[in-house]
Design goal:
6-stranded parallel beta sheet, alpha/beta, 17 strands, 740 residues
């Protein structure tokens, strides 16, 4: 099996050390065999770096060269550590520790604290933002919710860069950091925050690293204890190491050099948290005899996607750009990236939702599609558009799969059914493992048909559906498997945090998409001011934004869509320009370095020009909106998608016809049942509220209500206008309005 091939969920454990090497390409094999001395793996996006380093560890363990308990593999997220543990288990390399920096440090801190300091380790504060709020209040500084979050982030940055409160203003000036408020005020809040922690005998997440470093520096006996335990280190995503994490790594190593680091300077996107690629870029300087291996065979993306990715970094500047990797796609040709310009953000969201629905209809699973944006606040309009289109979605950032309450409850129920065995009448009618699981979950209210709408109920259903799919895959891989076998598999996966896939289009920020991949990726909102973000002022900050777009592009395997809107709201001034990073890369754009015009050029799909976007619908009715969208009650300019649907501020008084709204709700329930789709696929609540407030009397008045558009006008317009006119709509009238 090559790196380009998706492994099965339950592969056979290799029967020998040499079998571990099967299927590795020459460079990956070189990594796996480089088991001594310092090793630096420069691995581009999609080149199988996790595959290379896990096979390296597994080969060393299976060949008897590495003792599993002496290996510590370190990465940056619990998800990545869980994936690494899962892969090592599948390769027969159990006993290896794969942890995040914080997890490894916390484990050592808990073990050595009684000996080094005495007593119990101080309690770890779970929500430092509350303590920061109190610190600000004691300093007489008022912070709103967003300012509080920013202040908390600044304190975290200061600590991972080992900056004490008194030195914070100078550090901000030296690094040209764009502080969210007066550095002197933040320094004051930071100092008070530290004082409150001391008074209450609590520590925070960053203290875990700081205290571990302090103990290892001061107590040589403890440092030697750790070094006897861990003799071989692997560090993934090394470009994201902070100065504090590097200091901890140096203390773990001592005067040894049995270290393997893996990274890509072209994917450095977390400098705002204190991460720096300097440790990766200077690795050969610190370790002149290091083995350096470059992984450039891209097994993830098509040549078309890889070409755009290479083009992006080909225009980069700065130290990281000097070490860029030129990727070579190993996949067959695929579709060209699609560039689309829209008139406004809601039209962009609706156009994206339509294209996603078309992909799903063509056979692309919803779970293999992602919508990626620069900031989280962009998600709402896409949530609404996907709901309107009847497309399931999930927001990235929820708790880990096996930590979800419904998943824990499901595990308890499955364990109970497994213990009961043939004595459980619930399983009498079940003739295979998946049907047994469905029967058990039915006691928890689960049905094979998903509930209407989104929210917590739908999230719970999706979690249980993922477990049902896992049971189906498990039985296929292991015919004759029992409930007890499945429970044991789930326990191992929970211990490794190796979760099955929850189906649904992923909505995520570009930062949170790092390390993930999909068959189709929609990169949205790619305008100047958003990409690069407006507060990226220095050359290095702008270059990091370019790398962020590169990360987004390289998430796509086959289908890649890039879009932007020339105005924020319907009818707004078309003053926005597409991101400069696409200059010279998208069809019809000016060469890199030249100023792009607002219009773009040939080869760009004008998303709203088809007559299916919001403005297209308005033109079809002969009513093109001009100027910003204003609240029809107070006159304020509206910017939120929900408010624009209502054409008023959320808190402004409503003149909605309540009786009409209820009639519309009853009609919607009937229509949703007829077409076997969730109610929101007909109209969302907000769209129906807007209809009940406007009480349209013609197609032209109905089509311009946000959330209606030509497609829904064709299908539901006659019904809605009849209800608004007080007429009764029967089942016969409801049929024959064309397909959705």
């Amino acid at each position: 099996m090559t790196a380009a091939t998706h492994s099965t969920l339950f592969p056979q454990v290799p029967d020998s050390a040499d079998a571990v090497l099967d299927g590795l390409d020459p460079e990956q094999r070189e990594v796996a065999l480089a088991l001594g001395g310092p090793v630096c793996v420069l691995a581009g996006a999609g080149t199988g770096k996790t595959r290379a380093i896990t096979h390296r560890i597994a080969y060393g363990v299976r060949a008897g060269i590495l003792q599993p308990t002496t290996v510590l593999a370190v990465t940056f997220t619990n998800r990545a550590a869980g994936e690494m543990r899962g892969r090592l288990r599948q390769l027969g390399a159990t006993g290896v520790q794969a942890r995040t920096f914080h997890s490894a440090a916390l484990r050592q801190l808990q073990y050595f604290w009684p000996k080094a300091v005495g007593g119990e380790l101080p309690r770890l504060v779970e929500r430092k933002v509350q303590l920061v709020a109190e610190a600000a209040a004691r300093c007489g500084i008022r912070l709103d919710r967003n300012e509080l979050r920013d202040a908390t982030s600044e304190i975290e940055w200061a600590k991972v860069t080992q900056t004490v409160p008194a030195d914070y203003p100078a550090a901000v000036a030296k690094t040209q950091r764009d502080a969210p408020r007066d550095p002197a005020e933040l320094s004051q809040i930071y100092a008070m925050y530290e004082q409150l922690k001391r008074d209450r005998s609590v520590i925070d997440f960053e203290d875990v690293l700081l205290l571990t470093v302090g103990i290892l520096q001061d107590r040589h006996d403890i440092a030697e204890h750790v070094r006897r335990q861990y003799q071989h280190f692997v560090v993934d995503e090394y470009q994201d190491v902070s100065p504090l994490q590097q200091r901890l790594l140096d203390l773990w190593l001592g005067d040894r050099d049995d270290l393997c680091v893996v990274g890509d300077a072209g994917q450095t996107i977390y400098s705002f948290t204190g991460a720096t690629p300097d440790h990766l870029l200077n690795f050969r300087t610190r370790h002149p005899n290091a083995t350096v291996v470059k992984l450039v065979r891209d097994y993830r993306s098509t040549p078309q996607v890889v070409s755009l990715a290479n083009g992006l970094l080909g225009q980069a500047r700065g130290k990281a750009a000097e070490h860029r990797l030129e990727l070579v796609s190993q996949r067959a040709k695929g579709p060209e990236p699609v560039y689309t310009e829209y008139t406004d953000e809601p039209a962009e969201a609706e156009g994206t939702a339509r294209r996603i629905r078309d992909l799903i209809a063509a056979g692309v699973p919803a779970g293999e599609i992602a919508v990626l944006y620069r900031v989280n606040s962009q998600s709402e309009v896409y949530e609404q558009a996907l709901a309107d289109a009847g497309v399931p979605y999930q927001l990235r950032g929820a708790e880990r799969f096996f930590d979800r309450p419904e998943v824990r409850e499901a595990g308890v129920a499955l364990r109970g059914a497994a213990r009961a065995g043939g004595n459980d009448s619930l399983l009498d009618a079940a003739d295979d493992l998946p049907s047994e699981v469905r029967a058990v979950f039915s006691t928890k209210g689960w049905t094979s048909k998903p509930p209407a709408g989104s929210g917590a109920v739908r999230d719970r259903w999706e979690s249980l559906a993922a477990l049902v799919r896992l049971a189906e895959d498990f039985e296929q891989a292991k015919p004759g498997a029992t409930l007890s076998d499945l429970v044991a598999e789930l326990d191992e996966r929970a211990a490794a945090q190796h979760a099955p896939t929850v189906q649904g289009v992923t909505l995520a920020s570009l930062h949170s998409a790092k390390g993930l991949e999909w068959d189709a990726a929609f990169l949205v909102g790619l305008t100047e001011g958003m990409m690069p973000i407006a507060y990226a002022k220095t050359d290095e900050q702008v270059e990091e934004e370019r790398r962020l777009l590169y990360v987004g592009v390289t998430r796509a395997r086959f289908h890649l869509s890039l879009s932007w809107a020339v105005s924020r709201s319907p009818g707004g001034r078309a003053g926005r320009r597409p991101t400069r990073f696409l200059n010279g890369l998208r069809p019809g754009s000016p060469a890199a370095g030249m100023r792009a015009g607002a219009g773009g050029g040939g080869g760009i799909d004008r998303g709203s020009g088809t007559g299916t976007g919001r403005d297209g619908a308005a033109r079809a009715a002969g009513k093109t909106r001009r100027g910003p969208v204003r609240c029809r009650v107070c006159g304020r300019t509206l910017t939120e998608a929900g408010e624009m649907k209502l054409m008023r501020c959320e808190d402004c008084p409503s003149d909605m016809d309540e009786a009409l709204y209820e009639r519309l709700r009853e009609w919607r329930a009937d229509r949703a049942k007829e077409i076997s789709q969730p109610a929101y696929c007909v109209f969302t609540d907000k769209t129906m509220m807007a209809i009940a407030e406007a009480v349209p009397g013609s197609e032209g008045e109905l089509v311009v209500i946000p959330g209606v558009g030509n497609r829904k006008l064709t299908r539901f317009g006659a019904d809605v206008l009849a209800i608004c006119a007080g007429r009764t709509v029967d089942a016969g009238l409801a049929e024959g309005h064309g397909d959705m």
